[in-house]
Amino acid sequence: MTSVHPTAADPFAVTTRGITDPHPARVKLRAAGPLVRVAAPAGGPAWIITDDTLAREALRHPDIVKDPAYAPAGWDPRRAGLEPTAAAQPSLTTYDGPAHTRLRRAHAPLFTARRMAGYAERIAGFARDLLTGLAETEGTVDLAADFTIRFSLTVVCDVLGVPLDRIDQAIAACRRMYSSDPEEVGAAMATFADLAAAALAEGGSGLAAELRDRVPAEITEAQLHYLLFTLIYAGQLTTDPALGFLLSRALGPDREERGAATEDLVRDTLRVHAPAPFTLWRFTSRETELAGVTLPARSPVLIDIQGINTDPRRAIGPDLTFGAGPHYCTGVHLARLELRTVVEVLRSDFPAARLAVPYSGLRQTDFGGIQGSRLTALPVRLR
Length: 383
Description:
The chain is built from 16 helices and 13 strands. It is of the alpha+beta class. It has one domain: CATH 1.10.630.10. It has a five-stranded mixed sheet, with helices on both faces. It has a three-stranded antiparallel sheet with strand order 1-11-12. Strand 2 and strand 3 form a beta hairpin. The radius of gyration is 21 Å and the shape is globular. The model is unreliable at 1-7 (pLDDT under 50).
């Protein structure tokens, strides 16, 4: 049975809280039931799934789609944070069905664990060089400001074939995407198109050039640029904040965590601090029943990934950090490799590294909507 909106908690609020403080809405959402009706930021009702089994059903449900063309008629796409419709711009994150399968077949072989492993040495080199440069200050450095965004963008740009002298442009473009000014966002998108063109320039040897040869024939050059934008921006938007939480735990006061196997530490950090706390918006393409509730066509649906991942009642098994079903994250192997590599480089090259403030004093900010949280700062002494 669906629930009324939990009046004491807003899952979409902008908040700042301690690193160990749970999101104020998570427990109350779970207590409200497996399918909870809430007020959507763009107006009208939305439904949040808080149960693991129901979430996996919804992630595979043929009538719960990602195409923003099915969003409520009154929604402002910008306020809701929606991409262009699938008809306007093909995308892995808006296509469904056979069209999504074709586009995914173009991407997936490029991002397998085996292909990504071939970049391990270069990724370690980027982490080592950036951290060594920061360590030369011989004082406190803020890894959340000076490392995580630059490292994540350096990696994804290198993999795609964007020239590394364009990293500052990529950083500026990603930061502009947070602006409430449409002109700023437009300028950021123009920069991303320029970065994509640079990756596709004659002689390019990155995965962007391979992707161009693999996408369906009807994909235009401008549409290909957008596909590359989604890879660059998603690669920063998720890996950047995840690095902050991971490094804080690797350097924190808990000796067990500091000595934990890297893979275990990465997995648990992603579970507890899911980079995407919710899925992207999904919509019912027609009247659909979920958990005994009939949802009208064009109903917005979210999966509470972070709430489900951290539910103490949840059975042990795969978490939902990277999704499930047809839209399971294509970049999962690259993201995990980046995170593992940074911890390994930190442990091997900077054994004396430590937090410059108490772990309990670190703060995180939730940006509101369906965006994730990130540390406000990560002060560290590397030497």
